[in-house]
Write a sequence for this structure.
């Protein structure tokens, strides 16, 4: 079969449409911060870009170093009014962060694990790798936690971050 000029144009048009929709889906995707917070948040990449930035270099699962751009998780939680810093004591130490992805994967960090008054390890909510938005299947948001020796809590495709109470 010969590809006519018309068919060629149709193929190009189709690619453009699919491309536009996937780019739109990435930039419009939101991340919820909810649960034991003062102010629940719904964030897009654009919103996150207005937060204090924490650029970090970290090795991926294959040992390859990448430059990630993102916001320290505690900065996001602070914005939502989570009990961190001076407020992270007593029963508040029984609170944890449950992060859920669009594929159903879930991981947990305790509040103390992300509070800079407790630890020098950083847990970053990343939205760019090597200067580009995280690819589909990984982004728009993922955790980068170079303090973890295993990558299992580097959760990809984050949909929500919920603060919960483990106390009876
Ligand atoms: N949403 C989601 N994130 C995930 C996983 C998953 O199954 N789903 N697997 C984890 C595991 S076990 C590892 S080792 C790393 C691997 O990250 P990579 O796929 O970017 O190499 O992703 C983590 N994040
Ligand atoms: Mo893994």
């Amino acid at each position: 079969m010969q590809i006519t000029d018309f068919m060629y144009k149709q193929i190009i048009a189709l690619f453009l449409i699919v491309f536009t929709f996937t780019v739109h889906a990435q930039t419009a995707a939101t991340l919820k911060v909810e649960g034991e917070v003062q102010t629940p948040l719904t964030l897009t990449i654009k919103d996150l870009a207005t937060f204090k930035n924490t650029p970090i270099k970290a090795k991926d699962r294959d040992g390859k170093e990448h430059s990630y751009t993102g916001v320290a998780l505690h900065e996001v939680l602070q914005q939502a009014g989570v009990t961190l810093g001076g407020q992270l004591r007593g029963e508040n130490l029984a609170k944890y962060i449950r992060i859920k992805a669009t594929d159903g994967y879930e991981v947990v960090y305790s509040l103390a694990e992300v509070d800079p008054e407790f630890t020098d390890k950083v847990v970053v909510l990343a939205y760019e790798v090597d200067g580009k938005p995280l690819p589909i299947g990984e982004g728009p948001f993922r955790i980068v936690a170079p303090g973890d020796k295993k990558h299992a809590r580097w959760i990809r495709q984050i949909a929500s971050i919920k603060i919960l109470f483990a106390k009876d």
